[in-house]
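Entry 12.
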Amino acid sequence: MVARPAVRIVIDRMKVEDLPAVHVIERESFSTPWPAHAYRQELENNRLAAYIVARCGDEVVGFAGIWLLVDEAHVTTFATRRAWRRQGIGERLLLALLDLARARGANEATLEVRPSNMPARRLYEKYGFKVVGVRPHYYSDDNEDALIMTTDSLDGRSMRDRVAELRAAVSARPDIEIGADGLPTNHPEGVASGSNVEPAQGLEDAASSPGSGAPSGQSARDPRAVRPGDAARRQP
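Predicted 3D structure (tokens):
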């Protein structure tokens, strides 16, 4: 079989027609997925929310979202298709979220992450997030604490220089080689056993993890009554 041409990932605004693909990623990435109608309500009714997707051609291979709360951008969700992880998609999504936050006037970005999710923590630290506090017993599935991570001023020189350097590095990465099966040639599921153990709930090389009661926590929550603090509980 002949491999397909290499592809470049495109970051785009999430649309209602993307939701079936988003739900697939949601279910394979989080232990307690949002109900099917949650994202539609977020897109159509939540003026504080902004959601984006990563596209490979017509296929949605990742998504992320933020809530703009006064001058703070709160990362609410972040996930990548299991077979598309380790391709730099998470970094592209995170860069796009930081761009969006700054464009909408946010002074900083913040999120919650599980202490045990080292891949996620390393990615966030790479992009300037620092631990500023702890939420005890934050995650409802196992009562694990959450680390609160926040950036310096998004418009400050240090963050702007950091993001510019990282953006250049991501842009310099080669296009993703696609096999005859339509998946990246080095995707995790390419091993003979078919097993695929990925770090944390779905952020690609890092992720968000379940909490309780909100869009982000992959927990039992009513999307009509989501609180900002709950939203981040998706972060691992």
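Annotation: DSSP finds six helices and nine strands in the chain. The helical segments are 19-29, 38-45, 89-103, 118-126, 157-171, 228-231.
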